[in-house]
Structure formats: structure tokens, C-alpha cells
Write a structure and sequence with these properties.
The protein has 300 residues and is an alpha/beta fold. It is globular, with a radius of gyration of 18 Å.
């Protein structure tokens, strides 16, 4: 996998929205943060644009993202907000200039579409909180994002004795993102390649039976059998029917991979959680799950 050039002071970062609408005022904390890093900020035309729930119509969102991809002065593109919409434009994006001059793509949730598509082209991306979320994030998370963008080696560790964890050690390329998006990409040119990889998944506000449906779909598509390891982030605010499904989201996931022997961990601090740590997707990494701790170390 190709690592885009790390940022340095004086570089320009663009903020765009490929999905839900957002105002410039809402992005003031992000603009201030990026400027404090010594970077220049360019706001795309989608910022402040609106068409129903979207940051402008498909044509505008496509044009804005394409311009930032093609602009050689832009060294990173930070998605402002998730929601829904990136899949509506992904097949019309031209990554010719990107492959010649790659740049960091930042975001999560709906941005999983971009992550997965770009990984199939052979490039790393950053699974990170959105530009519109800066105000709600504590300083350590902001610092970690900066350090990653500027090339400082990163690792993540946390205490965990979850009984559903499966102890072990794995090395492989870290891939993944939002489970619902990964599920929706199956069978497309953006479908994720998982063989030999450490798969990261997370989700929010889904019905439990649908979590099971998605995991069964990934299993039937062969996306779970040959993993090196599985990392499960936030699986929050799940819903159930009047007649209970009978399992939690974590239990559903653990059951779906019960036939395999790789390490599995839950409650990883990434996804739709306050502690949404930056992940270098596409980077060869080492996952270690013990009785008491989980660690993920990104290679160089």
C-alpha cells in the first residue's frame, strides 16, 4: 500500500462534504485547529451548500471532491460530515490524478465508501473523526490526529477483559470502517478485500437482526474466513423488535466468526464513540489481544 506524503507546515488541507450538509460556522473550530498546526485551509464549495439533507446536489458534491483530488496544492482532504451520500458519486470520481499524487483522505462512517474504494487502488487513508466534530473532541484526540498526519508513529492500547474477546496475535493490513457501508459495497468496485487483513468494523443505531444480516452477508461473501484478526469498535444505540432477537450486537459478531481462529477484540476506541481514535487504514499493523489488554500498533 502507498502512503501519501505526510503533511508539513505550509501545506494546504481542504474541507469538503461528500454527504450531509454543514455550515462554515460549524467548521470554525476545525479551521482554527488546522491553522494552529501551521496549515492552510481551503473550504470546498459544498460547505454551506444545501439540497435537502445533502451538502448540495450530487453534481456539486462530485465537482467539489474532484477538484480537491485533482488540485496538486491540496495535501489532505478532510470530510466535514457523514450521514449519507458518498456512494451516490463514487463511480463518477476520477482518481487518475490521485494515483499520480496521492493525498490523505480523512473521515469515517459514510466516508467508508471512499476508504474502501481508495484501498482497492492501493493507497492508505485515515479513519478519523469528522471536521465538524472538532469542538466535541478532547485535546489528546486532536493531538493524535495531528501526529498521524505529520508522520509520527502511532499505536493504540486499552484495558479489556471482555469475555467475548479471543486472545491472540495477528499481523496484517488494517482495513474496514462502518459495517453498514461495507455491507452495502459488497459486489461493487468498492467492495473490500479482506484476505490476510485485520478487519475493523463499527456501527450505530441499527436493528440487531440487521447486524446479524450484515455479518452473515460478509461471511457468505468470504470476507471473514481468511482474516488475520477482527477489531470491533463502537456498536452503539442498537435497536430491537418487540420480540427480542436474543443476542447483543457483540454476541452476533462473535457468533459469526466462531468457526475461525484469529484474535478478536471488542470495544475498540474508534467509530461512533467519543473516543474515536485515528486509524491508518491500509497500513500493515500488529494486533495483540491478551486477557487484560488490547493493542494495535501501526507499522511505518
Amino acid at each position: 500500500m502507498v502512503t501519501p506524503p505526510y503533511l508539513k507546515k505550509g501545506d494546504t488541507l481542504a474541507i469538503v462534504s461528500s454527504a450531509r450538509k454543514i455550515t462554515e460556522r460549524e467548521l470554525e473550530p476545525a479551521i482554527e485547529l488546522v491553522s494552529s498546526w501551521g496549515l492552510k485551509v481551503l473550504l470546498g464549495e459544498t460547505i454551506g451548500a444545501t439540497e435537502n439533507q445533502f451538502a448540495g446536489n450530487d453534481a456539486l458534491r462530485l465537482q467539489d471532491l474532484q477538484e480537491q483530488i485533482d488540485n496538486p496544492e491540496i495535501k489532505a482532504i478532510w470530510c466535514a460530515r457523514g450521514g449519507y451520500g458518498t456512494v451516490r458519486i463514487i463511480d463518477k470520481l476520477d482518481f487518475t490524478a490521485f494515483t499520480r499524487s496521492p493525498k490523505w483522505i480523512l473521515g469515517y462512517s459514510d466516508v467508508t465508501t471512499l476508504h474502501s474504494h481508495i484501498h482497492n487502488l492501493g493507497f492508505e487513508t485515515l479513519h478519523a473523526f469528522m471536521a465538524g466534530e472538532v469542538k466535541s473532541k478532547k485535546q489528546t484526540l486532536l493531538d493524535e490526529l495531528k501526529q498521524t498526519l505529520f508522520g509520527k508513529k502511532q499505536s493504540i492500547s486499552y484495558t479489556s477483559n471482555d469475555k467475548l474477546n479471543r486472545i491472540g496475535k495477528a499481523t496484517g493490513k488494517l482495513v474496514g470502517g462502518n459495517l453498514s457501508i461495507l455491507y452495502s459495497l459488497c459486489g461493487s468496485a468498492s467492495a473490500l478485500e479482506t484476505e490476510g487483513a485485520i478487519l475493523f468494523i463499527e456501527d450505530l443505531d441499527e436493528y440487531l437482526y440487521h447486524v446479524d444480516r450484515m455479518m452473515q452477508n460478509l461471511k457468505r461473501n468470504g470476507m471473514l474466513a481468511k482474516l488475520a484478526g477482527l477489531v470491533v469498535g463502537g456498536m452503539n444505540d442498537m435497536n430491537d423488535n418487540t420480540i427480542s432477537f436474543g443476542k447483543t450486537a457483540k454476541e452476533i459478531i462473535r457468533e459469526a466468526v466462531a468457526d475461525y481462529n484469529y484474535p478478536v477484540c471488542f470495544n475498540f476506541p474508534a467509530g461512533h464513540v467519543n473516543e474515536n481514535k485515528t486509524l491508518i487504514l491500509g497500513r500493515r499493523s500488529e494486533l495483540i489481544v491478551t486477557n487484560k489488554n488490547v493493542s494495535l500498533e501501526f507499522g511505518t
